[in-house]
Amino acid sequence: MSSHLRQSQDDASPVQKGDAEFKGRVALVTGGSRGIGKAIALELARRGADIAFNYLKNHAAARDTEAEVAALGVRCLKVRAHVGDEEAISALFKQVEERFGRLDFLINNAASGVMRPATEIEAKHWDWTLDINARGPWLCSVAAARLMKQGGRIINLSSPGSARVLPGYFAVGVSKAALEAVTRYLAVELAAQGVSVNTVAAGFVMTGALDAFPGELGVKEIAARPTPAGRPVTPEDVAKVIAWLCGEGGEMIRGQVIVVDGGETLLHR
């Protein structure tokens, strides 16, 4: 029996035998206090990883997530940081390094954006959206790579709107397309140091993020309907794919976009 399994049993930790594949690893999930980000943080914690996550405004949600992660028997670092701000990103990674001394997984999940057609947004809306959704993940990835001394995984969160035109999704769709290009370039540039970079594109998932869509678009109704797989996509579905990419099975997947949508985008509706 390996030492890390003996320890988890002896400590009577909520992380059970067979679940601790990431014990001793450290993951940073941006935007990890709610929705898909929270599901990712909890999934990685269940598998034994220590968790750092940032949030921006919702202190109550961040405290709740911190408590849920800690209850799984792993260490947790909660940091308020705006990933659209270069100085805030530097401060975030400084805290991660001071607390854990390393980083193994970076999940660039944090996202925002102004939901208007191209003819109705202003330059400031463009800057806000691109800074958070594309520039931020690039800066976070560069900072993370410096802490990945023994290799690691970087996984970016995108959406099918990077390649398909969705109503009012102009700035966000462009930012996600940029993020997928960032993924490809970093996958090559960071490969030599053992860091793999990929993107997971989640279909419509029923989270609070859907509130940003204008009601007349009916996005919540789309998210709630069954996919070809027979049910809607959940945050946990996305989290499990990300956890798999972080494991041994994801070693030779580089620079790819993996769509998690239950087959929804295969249909013409």
Please indicate the count of domains.
1
Task: State Rg.
Answer: 18 Å
CATH level 1 class label: Alpha Beta
The low-confidence parts are: 1-18
Outline the structure in words.
The chain is an alpha/beta fold. The chain has a single domain (21-263), classed as Rossmann fold. The chain is built from 8 helices and 7 strands. It has helices spanning 3-10, 35-46, 59-70, 86-100, 123-147, 170-189, 219-224, 235-246, and strands spanning 26-29, 50-55, 76-80, 105-108, 152-158, 195-202, 257-260. It has a 7-stranded parallel sheet with strand order 3-2-1-4-5-6-7, with helices on both faces. It is globular, with a radius of gyration of 18 Å. It starts with a helix and ends in a 9-residue tail after the last strand.
Characteristic terms for this protein:
269 residues, Rossmann fold, 8 helices, globular
How do you describe this structure in short?
By secondary structure, the protein is of the alpha/beta class. The chain has helices at 3-10, 35-46, 59-70, 86-100, 123-147, 170-189, 219-224, 235-246; strands at 26-29, 50-55, 76-80, 105-108, 152-158, 195-202, 257-260.
Describe the secondary-structure layout:
Layout: H1 3-10, E1 26-29, H2 35-46, E2 50-55, H3 59-70, E3 76-80, H4 86-100, E4 105-108, H5 123-147, E5 152-158, H6 170-189, E6 195-202, H7 219-224, H8 235-246, E7 257-260
Parallel strand pairs: 1-2, 1-4, 2-3, 4-5, 5-6, 6-7
